[in-house]
Amino acid sequence: MHSPGCELDLVDAKSRKKYLYRDAVFRDKFRREHERFVDVLREQGIEVLLLDDILKDDEKTRSLMRQCPNLVYTRDIVSVTRAGSIVMRMKSKVRAKEPEIAELALNKLGVPMLMDVSRPGVMEGGDLVYMSDEVLVIGVDLIEIDGSELIRGGGGPRCMTAPILRD
Residue 166: its pLDDT value, please? Predict the structure, then answer.
């Protein structure tokens, strides 16, 4: 996870659309709500790992993190399974560096990469639905990615793709 910080100051009434926000951000309230969410997870016995802690010695990456106001939404950029990580490739250019940040942290933790998405494909966390421990459904926008590309990383026979029909 990533605790939101000064990068949220980039989002104001003029820049909100650029950064994919509906409105300007109230940083202090956002941080308090996120901290409470982390506390609730920990109270439930869930180990919460924060990007700031994992990458504390990598000033170059931490500087990049301060330019990514959407980094708090880590579910969009990576999914971690028992077999390894699935590193996404974001559709929006403003979020392009976020998966790289997550990948650096995962490498530092020794988490193997199960699969990644290469150009021209894009995939975000909302495209994944874990149906069970053995079945992952991946929504595929046929215009942007060939479903066979997704299983290139070893998703195996239980990795299914589901076309998304657009009007």
Answer: 52
Ranges of the chain with pLDDT below 70: 140-167
DSSP characters over the chain: -----GGGGG--TTTTTTTT-SS---HHHHHHHHHHHHHHHHHTT-----HHHHTTT-HHHHHHHTT-TTTT-GGGTEEE-SS-EEE-B-SSGGGTTHHHHHHHHHHHHTPPEEEE--TT--B-GGGEEE-SSS-EEEEE-TTT--HHHHGGGTT-TTEEEEEPP--
What is the reported pLDDT for 151? 46
| Cis preceding linkage at 69, omega within 30 | no
Distance CA 151, CA 83 (A): 14
Cβ–Cβ < 8 Å for 102, 87:
yes
Distance of CA 64 to the CA centre of its chain: 15
